[in-house]
Design a protein that fits this description.
It is built from eleven helices and five strands; from the N terminus they run αααααααββαβαβαβα. It is α/β, with parallel strands linked by helices and 276 residues long. The protein is rod-shaped and about 95 Å long.
Length: 276
């Protein structure tokens, strides 16, 4: 429709108006997060983001759907990973998307009032486009937010895993693995995997494994610990165990686990002194 181009031009000249009107109508007493902020820098950034939205969205009346979203996608991803929006409850973000959508309905009506030749059929077609594309934008925003959250969770889990099995490099190709807290089967498996990798990456020849911070381990965990010692031996890493509590020793004996080839010391200090 040739009048879609006219509508595009009409909207393009009013993107700043759309942003200012939208922000002015936000009821800060009934919202939260980025929309309730009184920080001038946050407000300025929010308005800039909203204006960028309009510059992208009006292209729906000027370009094909594929090209439209190819150019729009980076904005959606940026907002989905924006810390201010992440810290804003999702219902308030969706509500503002809807408020902006309603602005477009109003502006289509304004355009139709100024251009009396616009038919009801044309106006309904524009409304349908706005509804359809806003739904798609909201869906992509939610997907982007979910992906960002998943990536953050994965990164945090990796950090937790690293902290749960931290191999500390010492001098002379030696390393220390201080185990602290409860160790369940899943954590024991993670410790096995991370310890082998860190020892190989750091060229560690002798690893001190200190258990003084571990109060209790079950039979499965004791078995995993034994597997760790065997695996370290296979890659040429000598091991010294220290801080074994009586309860842990009893579990090992009941399982018939042999620590032959592994030096065992009462305390970490004693283990480190022995290598001097």
């Amino acid at each position: 429709m040739h009048r879609s181009k006219s509508l595009y031009t009409f909207l393009k000249g009013r993107t700043r108006d759309l942003t200012e009107e939208w922000y002015k109508n936000i009821d800060k007493t009934k919202t939260a997060g980025v929309y309730a902020s009184n920080d001038p820098k946050v407000i300025e950034a929010l308005k800039d983001q909203n204006h960028e939205f309009h510059l992208h969205f009006i292209e729906v009346f000027n370009k094909g759907a594929v090209e439209f979203f190819e150019e729009f996608e980076p904005w959606i991803i940026k907002i989905a990973s924006d810390i201010e929006h992440i810290n804003t409850p999702i219902q308030y973000v969706i509500r503002e998307f809807k408020n902006v959508r309603n602005q477009y309905f109003d502006y289509v009506n304004k355009f139709a009032e100024l251009n009396t030749e616009v038919t009801r059929q044309e106006r309904d077609a524009w409304f349908e486009i706005i509804l359809k594309e806003f739904d798609e934008v909201i869906l992509r925003f939610i997907e982007g937010t979910y992906k960002y959250s998943q990536n953050v969770l994965i990164a945090q889990q990796e950090m937790i895993n690293e902290l749960s099995a931290p191999v500390i490099s010492l001098s002379n190709h030696q390393g220390l693995l201080p185990l602290i807290g409860d160790i369940d089967t899943s954590r024991a498996k993670m410790i096995l995997e991370h310890t082998l990798k860190q020892c190989a990456d750091r060229d560690i020849h002798h690893l001190f494994v200190d258990l003084s911070g571990v109060a209790m381990i079950d039979t499965m965990v004791a078995h995993q610990l034994f597997q760790l010692l065997k695996a370290l031996k296979l890659i040429g890493v000598k091991t010294t165990l220290s801080g074994i509590r009586p309860e842990i020793a009893q579990t090992a004996v009941q399982l018939g686990l042999s620590f032959e080839g592994t030096m065992i010391k009462n305390s970490l200090a004693q283990a480190l002194d022995h290598t001097k």
